[in-house]
Structures are given as C-alpha cells and as structure tokens.
C-alpha cells in the first residue's frame, strides 16, 4: 500500500469544498465557531461510523452497491438542493436562525452527503483491504481517516472564524456563492452532467 497516496487522497477529499464543509462555513458565519463545533462533532461521528460500516459490511455492500449508490445520489442531491436553499435564505435577516448547526444536524448531514458516502464506501475497500486483513489494522485506518476528516472540518471552522468579518460584510454574496456551490455539487452527484 502506498501510504503517501492514501493520505493525499484522504486529505484532498476531506478538505475540498463539499456540502458539509460549506454548511460549516455558513454556520460559523451565522453562529460562531463554538456552536459550529457541535455540528463538527456530529459530522465527525457520522463520518467514522460510515467508515466503520463500510469496513465491516464491505462484502455485503459490494453486491448491492450499484442500486444503493443510485438511490443515495438522488436523496443526497435533493438534500443538497434543500441545503442550498437554506444557505441562500441566510442572506435575508428573517431567515437567520432557521438552519440547524448542532451535533444532530452534523450527524444527519453526513448520512445524506453523497460525497461522504461515496468516499467511505470506496476508501477502505480500495486502499486498505487489499493490503491489510486484520480487523485491528482496518480499525486503525478507520481512526486515521476519521481524524483527517475532523481536521478538515475544524480547518473550515478556523477559516470561517478568521474571515468572519469579511464574510459578514459580504453576507449576501457569500451565501449566494455557497448556495451555488451546493447546487453545483447536487447536479454533479445526480449525474445530470
């Protein structure tokens, strides 16, 4: 196994913009870093659970993966469009306070996030299982990937905190851009383009 390739892949996938990272950025802008860390905790727990489930159920999922991925693409795309609408509405003051940013919201977001589902369903079977057979090694890699995900989510909180005043000054533009990124993600995941 090429560890460097594995680490780079995990970092690129978790640190690049996706639905969870965009919601984290929006949440920091509106609720602050402390409240957003609850969301990060939920997102991290779900991320780890999805990785563990992928590792434990890999053989079962391999048979139903094509059907499962198609359904999750549709559900995930619809959920991202809903999130895009919520983020866009944040640009108007009457919509403030309606987007959840707590632990449960972060947890649920990951289970509906197609980027995370596709990543967790492929990273362990592709990078770990061909080279490591023991449950302890697989568990270690689940922990390592979960920590990388937590660091990525936290980096987005820090980024949002550092640029919070800028983001608030340009709230309408930033919310519109984040909403458009979510719409783009939904379109790409759905397979329309």
TrEMBL record:
PANTHER family: ARGININE EXPORTER PROTEIN ARGO, ARGININE EXPORTER PROTEIN ARGO-RELATED. It holds the Pfam family LysE. It is a multi-pass membrane protein. Its main location: membrane. InterPro entries: LeuE-type. It is found in: Cell membrane. It comes from the Bacteria. The chain crosses the membrane at residues 6-25, 37-58, 64-85, 116-133, 139-163, 175-192. Keywords: Cell membrane, Membrane, Transmembrane, Transmembrane helix. This is LysE family translocator. The keyword Cell membrane applies.
